[in-house]
Amino acid sequence: MESVTDRACAAALYAEGDAALDTGASLLAAAPDADAEAHRRGEEFVRRAWERGWHPADLVRYVRRELDERRAALAATLIAAETARYAELPPRWRRQLAELPAPVPRNRPDRFGYAADLLELYRVLLRLPAVEPVGPLPGAAADHLHRPPAAGEPRMLTRIRALLAKAEATGFPEEAEALTTKAQELMARHSIDEALLAARTQSRETPGACRIGVEPPYESAKAVLLDAVASANRCRAVWNDDLGFSTVVGFEPDLEAVELLFTSLLVQGTTAMTRAEAGQRAAGRKRTKTFRQAFWMGYAQRLGGRLAADAERITAQAETGADGSGGDGGGLLPVLAARDVAVSDTAERMFPRTTTTRLRGVSDLDGWTHGTEAADRARTGGSGGGPSGGRDGEIMA
Questions:
Q1: pTM confidence score
Q2: Cα–Cα–Cα angle for 212, 351, 360, rounded to 5 degrees
Q3: If we measure between CA atoms, which residue out of 83, 268, 309 comes closest to residue 166?
Q4: Distance (Å, rounded) from C-alpha 244 to C-alpha 260?
Q5: DSSP 8-state code for residue 287
Q6: pLDDT at 180 over 70
Q7: Residue 213, CA distances (Å) to 169, 250, 277 in order
């Protein structure tokens, strides 16, 4: 016998338009005893999303992009319920779950409105495209779930997060620069230490991947920034503009570094752009979207050059022992080269049909100038020149 939930879903999910949605919502609203089954149906849709390669943060971000914050919070409620059944989850899943919006009370503000939200959310979940998997499904056996962390890793990451948090909070550009520089140096040295340790112990660890949201507005410039951060930390980034994220491929310590640094540089860039716009308004000049787009592109391009130079400097110091480590007898570069090849091979297997997209150049010189100046203040050490190739950019997509 067909249940109320079956009839409501058949009415609302497989036909277009508000009338179909209203019919399904009316059926659910009139049947309080169907609430539990309706929510179990939503959890089934969430589980299918995992099977299509999605992770919790991806799913909430996509629902927010397609619908709104209210339905994104409802998606988070279903995600929390579905994932509660698993005894163990990968660390990245646990972090994402901890950052989800708060659960939504059922049937608020009224039964019909809540049922309509639920069914509209189910429409989106039902039509989710498959994406490249970046880890095991929840509940699946995986060796890395039980592998102990590398010695000193939690303390190192805590120190890096603290440095970047201070860089974001300070009102003094010089202090932010020094703090960010120190954080990136720690990231680079930690990556080198992990690579050498893996080589000595003949570790069978292979590159992994994670997805990082690239949120509008000015997402193309932010994707350029993420690509630069990924490259400087021995990772590859591939941008999916339609779905609002980049997939970053690399070894786990490097993926951690990319997530931390990109997030911090976004915060620092936003603060600098707000300050620059305030200065423009105080001088009597109105600024528009073109100013902000140019700012972000200049910021991303200049930081890309500096991050690349810093990575080369730290590697050279480690190779020669100029950083006080005594050097490694010339064995570092082959180790890093082997890891770079492994990352490139993994990225090419995951994304065999990527293209290099050339982004449109910017037209606001003031915005570009302020963006490059902000990048100089947020730079991560070493010397660096201006952006190559003019005021536009390229990115893997």
A1: 0.82
A2: 65
A3: 268
A4: 18
A5: -
A6: yes
A7: 22, 17, 25
